[in-house]
Write a structure and sequence with these properties.
By secondary structure, this protein is of the alpha+beta class. The chain has a domain of 78 residues. 28% of the residues lie in helices and 19% in strands. The chain contains three helices and five strands, in the order ββααβαββ. Strands 1-2-3 form a three-stranded mixed beta sheet. Strands 4-5 form a two-stranded antiparallel ribbon. A hairpin with a 4-residue loop joins strand 4 and strand 5. Helix 2 crosses helix 3. The longest helix has 15 residues. The radius of gyration is 17 Å and the shape is globular. The two termini are 29 Å apart.
Length: 120
């Protein structure tokens, strides 16, 4: 067996850029939570710099623990929701073999999605 160097797993923390600094927000507490009062995920997804904005959002979620969107998000299709979820992971270094996989639920007649490291 080859040798394994644990240092290979270490990397610098991701740093948030300024791409979402224009969005109105309130930090819910000094330590955890951020509330975006008017931000819309669909606008982020369709922006010319969508990947940059979603990456910065993912980093913000990691830094703040949780974010809230107060503006209605009900205009997002299921496919757009899946795309956002997938991009949040891909753009922040999720291993390529991990991802969003679905399985048909025969009794319920719809597909359930989950994040896993393997396809089921």
């Amino acid at each position: 067996m080859g040798s394994f160097d644990p240092q290979q797993l270490r990397r610098e923390p991701l740093k948030r850029g300024p791409s979402i600094d224009h969005l109105e927000y309130v930090d819910v507490t000094p330590i955890i939570g951020r509330e975006y009062s008017t931000a819309r995920l669909k606008d982020m997804l369709n922006a010319p710099n969508a990947e940059e904005q979603l990456r910065d959002l993912a980093i913000t979620i990691c830094e703040r623990g949780v974010v809230f969107f107060r503006a209605p998000q009900d205009d997002l299709s299921i496919e757009e929701q899946k795309r956002i979820t997938d991009l949040l992971g891909k753009l922040t270094g999720r291993p390529p073999e991990n991802g969003l996989h679905g399985k048909q639920c025969p009794l319920e007649g719809h597909t359930r999605m989950w994040l896993t490291s393997t396809r089921r």
